[in-house]
């Protein structure tokens, strides 16, 4: 998921955060319309070095793109996992890796919607309001196959939902009405020059003007 600027760099880290693998290679982010993004991903079954290397590439790509979350399909890999490094409502940072995510959302009286802006690295430079439950919990497996569970509010709740959607082949444009989708498309097209086909390869450490305007 596309994130706000990284002004929260010095923010506290949640005690439940995972250590994200480092040393990965930045890969081009795959865009909406590419087949791998629009069908359910294969479940992760092998918790091996190959999976760890994939997760490291996902982390490197997420950071290079200034994102707060990234699913494997966004670098063209058909596997159900995502990584994130995202603040919650209080500004506390949360980091995690979830294979085979299963989402739990509040129901009934516990359910309230947050209509904040949402953006996707696979449709870069565009943000639009998208109503989602303001709290979410996700369970699944970590890189060694161990059970993991993460939960939270604020942008983190949105991120956990957005990234789990990716593992099911759903992009947030699928959740928008025609008017909102049109607005999103216009913004994406207006920003297209800032996002060449191999973005964010070579973009490490830079912030484009478009990013600054967006947030
Ligand atoms: Zn996305």
How would you characterize this protein structure?
It is built from four helices and nine strands; from the N terminus they run αβββββββββααα. It is an alpha+beta fold. It has a single domain (7-194), classed as Alpha-Beta Complex (Peptide Deformylase). The strands form three sheets. The protein has a five-stranded antiparallel β-sheet, sandwiched between helices. A two-stranded antiparallel sheet has the order 4-7. Strands 5-6 form a two-stranded antiparallel ribbon. Strand 2 and strand 3 (93-104) form a beta hairpin. The longest helix is centred in the first third of the chain and has 16 residues, at 49-64. It is globular. The model is unreliable at 206-215 (pLDDT under 50). Residues 1, 120-122, 162, 166 line the site of zinc ion.
Describe this structure in a few short sentences.
The chain has four helices and nine strands; from the N terminus they run αβββββββββααα. The protein is an alpha+beta fold. The two termini are 14 Å apart.
CATH-derived topology: Peptide Deformylase
> CATH architecture, please?
Alpha-Beta Complex
The top level CATH class name: Alpha Beta
Mean pLDDT, to the nearest integer, reads 93
Helix content: 10-25%
Largest beta sheet: strand ordering: 1-2-3-8-9
User: Element order, helices and strands?
Assistant: HEEEEEEEEEHHH
What is the CATH superfamily label?
A: Peptide deformylase
Shape label = globular
Radius of gyration: 16 Å
**Strand segment tally:** 9
Low-confidence stretches: 206-215
Number of distinct helices: 4
Beta-strand fraction estimate: 15-25%
End-to-end separation in angstroms reads 14 Å
Specify the biggest β-sheet.
5 strands, antiparallel
């Amino acid at each position: 998921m596309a994130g706000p600027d990284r002004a929260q760099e010095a923010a506290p880290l949640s005690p439940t955060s995972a250590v994200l693998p480092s040393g990965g290679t930045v890969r081009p982010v795959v865009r909406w319309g590419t087949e791998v993004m629009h069908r359910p991903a294969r479940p992760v079954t092998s918790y091996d070095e190959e999976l760890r290397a994939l997760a490291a590439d996902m982390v490197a790509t997420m950071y290079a793109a200034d994102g707060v979350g990234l699913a494997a399909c966004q670098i063209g890999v058909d596997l159900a996992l995502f990584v994130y490094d995202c603040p919650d409502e209080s500004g506390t940072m949360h980091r995690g890796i979830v294979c085979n995510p299963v989402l739990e959302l509040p129901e009934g009286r516990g359910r309230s919607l947050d209509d904040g802006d949402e953006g996707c690295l696979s449709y870069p430079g565009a943000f639009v309001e998208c109503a989602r439950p303001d709290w979410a919990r996700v369970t699944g497996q970590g890189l060694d196959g161990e059970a993991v569970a993460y939960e939270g509010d604020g942008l983190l709740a949105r991120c956990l939902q957005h990234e789990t959607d990716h593992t099911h082949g759903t992009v947030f444009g699928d959740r928008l009405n025609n008017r909102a989708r049109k607005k999103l498309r216009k913004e994406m097209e207006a920003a297209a020059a800032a996002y060449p086909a191999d973005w964010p390869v070579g973009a490490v450490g830079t912030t484009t003007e478009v990013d600054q305007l967006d947030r």
